[in-house]
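Sequence and structure are no longer studied apart. To make this concrete, we show below a single chain and its fold as tokens.
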Amino acid sequence: MKHQYFKYIGTVILLIAFAFTSKAQQTVVNGTVTDATTKETLPYVSFLITGTEKGGRTDADGQYSITISDDHTQIKFSYVGYKSVVKTIVPGKTQTIDVQLQSETTQMDEVVITAGKKPKYKNKDNPAVALIRNVIANKPKNRMDHYDFVEYKKYERMMFSMSNLSDKFKNKRIFRNYKFLFQEQDSTKIGGKTMLPVFQQEKLSNNYFRKSPEKLKTIIVADKRVNFDERFIDNQGLTTYFDRMYQDIDIYDNNISVVSNQLLSPIADGAPTFYKFFITDTIQNHNPKLVELSFMPRNNTDLLFEGKLYITLDGNYAVQNAYLTVNKDINLNFVRALEAKLDFEQNPDKRYHLSKSNLIVDFGLSKKGGTGFTGERTVNFKDYQINKPHPDTTYYGSAVPVVVADATKRSEEFWADNRPEALSATNLKVYSNLDTLQTIPSFKRTMDVVTLFFAGYKDFGPFEMGPVNTFYSFNSVEGFRLRLGGRTTPALSKRYYFETYAAYGFNDTKWKYFLSGTYSLNNKSIYAFPQNYLRASFQRDTKIPGQELQFVQEDNFLLSFKRGENDMMLYNDFYRIDYVHEFENHFSYSLGLRKWNQTPAGSLYFASSRDNNLIKTNSISTSEISLQLRYAPHEKFYQGKVYRTPLVDKYPIFNFRYTAGIKGVLGGEYNYHNFMGSVDKRFYLSQFGYTDVTLEGAYILGKVPFPLLSIHRANQTYAYQLQSYNLMNFLEFVSDHYASINIDQNFNGFFFNKIPLLKKLKLREVMSFKALYGGLRNENNPAVNNSAMQFVLNQDGVPITNSLSRDPYIEGSVGVGNIFKLLRVDLVKRFTYLDNPMVSEWGIRARVKFDF
């Protein structure tokens, strides 16, 4: 027994000794290759262990690494246009050998050079263009969807930092407690020498692709990120916003999404029309042989890349490496530098898949310098397997990534074992540093002020007051209006939420108020996706008939400024019960019960005709039930304090709403059925920008007074509103059936970029077209039915409310966007119904839009 014990111990010792001996025999060599004169790193330099076939190439940063087990003592570096260099290596050790290559020069006799006309670039008979056309022709077989099945593991890391910080900034008094947060890096790198990390996230996922029917299933197995106090920042919304700005780069797509813009890929089908291509190198000693293809935009301000591609000459014409950047004059706001590097690895069938991508974007108000922000996203792909089918259950479910239960609870040991590349010591500290930062009182006070300024709410723990931009406003009916309100937060309860406000108009001397109570059915914030809640509310307030706003409060101070006469308003009393249920696939439905009482205010009145006399009615009461369906596949949004803002993408959004009025229930006076449907879709047009299209239609069954008809969205403010008719007056048109189309075209500077002096201003062209076709059945039209509620007359006895006749309402606009990088100004023209009272044929409207 004792003998067996010592034999076991001896075996373990021998195994350990063998392991250390084997490790000691390994030789690890790494380093960086640079140009001896310029000191710039050299990508894709070939290196070879002398006397063997073992070697490789440096990456896009000029870095290399190789591990060998034999006793070889030399490594050779070679690069077209440079002298080869041989370095000595020490067997059995890990060593760093940095290499500087000298450019080759040839001694020549004296020659006389005379200036000649620079040949004009052309695609015809251009070998570089012929090569890129071969790449384009072979794209289908080099894409992932060429295979029936693909699976891989994916690692993502997102880092966001304040960048290009000066010593003066770093030494400010406000940062005296935060010195531990700053990072130092090589001053030549994007972002400058000193950076201040403010966000970091890592994700590990398993991904399964099936070609038919096409499906990509993603299972997130680990998720680690900086978590900020939810009172100040929505962490999930922040992640969604960064994911939208930094999407995966697929070089084989015609368009590549970067910072919410689409840039034409250098191997897009139409790339030779917009890019210039040059063969700048041939790498002979690589298997397969590679061609370095440099490219640049024909117009520097267009949304295009410039950089280098490394193309295989093995018949596949695949991209093996890519370096993408943008011209300094590109019509892209707030972007000071952009750099993307893509590395590909070979599949068993000799084709290539993306193995690593790195995207860095440096943002700043000024491109010439100063403090800014730098975002870096690194993605690694490993364990790439092709045509290995899984059971159908693997691909079931929606395309929304599935997060495993303990994904956010992975240990440090798990991350250390599963990261494809170890994090630097400084990046590892980012999580703990930012956790510490949030405990510092001065930081909390700063975030409190920032939240009040941007979100409009002042946090008091379980209750927050706001939004501040509604505290003061004015209109012709209420005059000077004061409002004060707020709502509870998850700090009070994650199940129960209450919201309230009170407002007072000094002209009409009336109080308005709102109170709601909401119960969360999924124990999540009622503002978080997916929503599932039950709400009861009461509201007594004013409303302008026909004013529909998106993501803006109606009593926002800036909307107090209006054109023309707009003293027709409603006092509304709403008693409501609503149930909302969203699903992970972005389908949602809501059920509602509403008692609604409308009382006219200002010059608005309700009246019916009897014996040629107007008989006025004090109010209209209705009781309604409603069902609303919404489907927004792949929708992403940023969650704000009051509402969430969708991040518009290429996927359509479908809406359907049915509302039924019930007479005799809870005081309801009318029976009717209202059906409404709409589709919203953005079409990306590559270099021609994008087009937003909305189709909408509705039909109302039943005899109803005009306040219950479809009051078409009008706009009497000076702001350009995308979904409203900007030269239509409030309450000008009503319908019981209608169809409409709204087209908004953004050219992203495609034409202005071609005008020599104008292109320096980075302006962008916009156009819009809006058409509305509808009408009233005789039973709802007071012009042919005296028993219908009469339209409002102006002082001259002319109706200010109309039904649409055989002609549609049409308006259009042309405009200039990106003025001072923030402002869009449209010249709007109204084409029809110009004889209606108090209308304008022309108008100028402005819209503030922050966009890259």
